[in-house]
Design a protein that fits this description.
elongated
Amino acid sequence: MGMSVIQSQDTSARNQDLTKGFLLGGYTQAEGRIEKDDETFWMLYVDGNGNEQWRKHVSGESRKKEERLSDLKLNRDGSIILAGTSAEELGKENWKIVKLGDQQVNDLIVKYDIKIYPNPVSDYAYVEIGFDFKEADILVYDMSGRQLQNLKTKNKVTKINTQALVQGAYLVTIKTDTNKTANAKLIKK
């Protein structure tokens, strides 16, 4: 009923995301007979070649007889949102939304300190910071080490103007109020 594509960033492919696998969500139904984990929210992870890696179902204290998953969303923080209906009998459904923090799913998420997209860039790029902070400086340097831009941000994702940069490679550095730093290369077309 729902699917999220798990991507990994291949550094040899110049910041291109490659499909690592798929997280699928749905429910089962044993025609006319009740099975133990029948009609409950299921998750299945298959790798990029389609081979099953693991499966699990969601049980909880509010579990009803008829639980049907409608959609699933994998968040960048590794949590999963499952949405569907739950009812004692068909026709008397209530919405059920579950947020999970699952270690197996968390292990699938590619962790990064800084992400820049699109990269290579023409006019504007987005700088995404992958750790917690209250305020950060985004610094852009040319390859000789000369600082060209300094932007202050409180946002996880910040749009930067690259129109004035000439074609070439640049270094983007993040410095936060919590003394964390991260660097990434930016390519200007």
